[in-house]
């Protein structure tokens, strides 16, 4: 049970970063840069962990379907967007993903599966496009950001499932609320 608060504390610095990580939004050269990209931006990190938190709270099929919808759309659009120009609205959509997914988890919102998957796929597509535009059109780069995203979803799931096993869903919901608040803060900053 002591591990849950530690996991939450590890998430908080990402929400409070005032300046991006040195590797954030740089044109990298391959797998490692793709792996670092989602980890180096508070917006990407928070949204991806929130997907796992929401999936843990929703349970059952959502445990795999929520992360899969996000990652599949992110990967497809990420590969298609390589070398393209930035699209207006992608960055606001990424910030919206942090707020909306964080709030959905904080409220333990139970949407019909189709609606939840559609929203997560839309948000995943925005993240994928941003990853692709900000990185090289090399095969290793998308593999890196997909793997990092799966890891962040797994971290959110682990936190959420541990809290649920301890019969403390409030921990998961609180972590998600921090995510939504951080997204709001990022939007206003």
Portion in beta strands: under 5%
Number of domains: 1
Mean pLDDT: 84
Principal-axes shape call: globular
State the share of residues found in helices, binned by percent. over 70%
How many distinct beta strands?
A: 0
Helical stretch count?
8
Distance between the termini: 34 Å
* SSE series: HHHHHHHH
Structural class: mainly alpha
pLDDT < 50 stretches: 1-26
Radius of gyration: 15 Å
Largest sheet: none
Overview of the structural elements:
The protein has eight helices and no strands. With 189 residues, it is mainly α. Helix 2 (31-39) packs parallel to helix 7, helix 3 runs antiparallel to helix 8 (169-188) and helix 5 (90-106) runs antiparallel to helix 6 (113-133). The model is unreliable at 1-26 (pLDDT under 50).
Task: Give a short summary of the structure.
The chain has one domain (40-188). With 189 residues, the chain is mainly α.
Secondary structure blueprint with pairings:
Elements: H1 3-16, H2 31-39, H3 42-58, H4 62-80, H5 90-106, H6 113-133, H7 140-165, H8 169-188
Helix pairs in contact: 1-3, 1-8, 2-7, 3-4, 3-5, 3-7, 3-8, 4-6, 4-7, 5-6, 5-8, 7-8
Keyphrases for this structure?
0% strand; mainly alpha; 189 residues; 8 helices
């Amino acid at each position: 049970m002591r591990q849950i608060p530690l996991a939450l504390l590890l998430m908080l610095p990402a929400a409070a970063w005032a300046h991006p990580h040195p590797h954030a939004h740089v044109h990298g050269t391959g797998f490692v840069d793709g792996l670092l990209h989602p980890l180096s931006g508070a917006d990407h990190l928070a949204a991806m962990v929130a997907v796992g938190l929401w999936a843990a709270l929703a349970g059952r099929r959502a445990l795999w379907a929520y992360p899969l919808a996000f990652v599949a759309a992110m990967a497809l659009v990420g590969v298609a967007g390589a070398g393209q120009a930035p699209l207006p609205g992608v960055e606001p959509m990424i910030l919206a993903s942090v707020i909306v997914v964080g709030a959905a988890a904080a409220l333990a919102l139970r949407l019909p599966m189709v609606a939840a998957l559609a929203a997560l796929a839309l948000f995943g597509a925005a993240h994928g496009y941003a990853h692709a535009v900000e990185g090289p059109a090399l095969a290793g780069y998308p593999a890196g950001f997909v793997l990092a995203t799966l890891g962040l979803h797994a971290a959110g799931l682990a936190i959420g499932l541990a809290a649920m096993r301890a019969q403390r869903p409030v921990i998961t919901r609180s972590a998600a609320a921090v995510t939504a608040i951080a997204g709001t803060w990022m939007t206003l900053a």
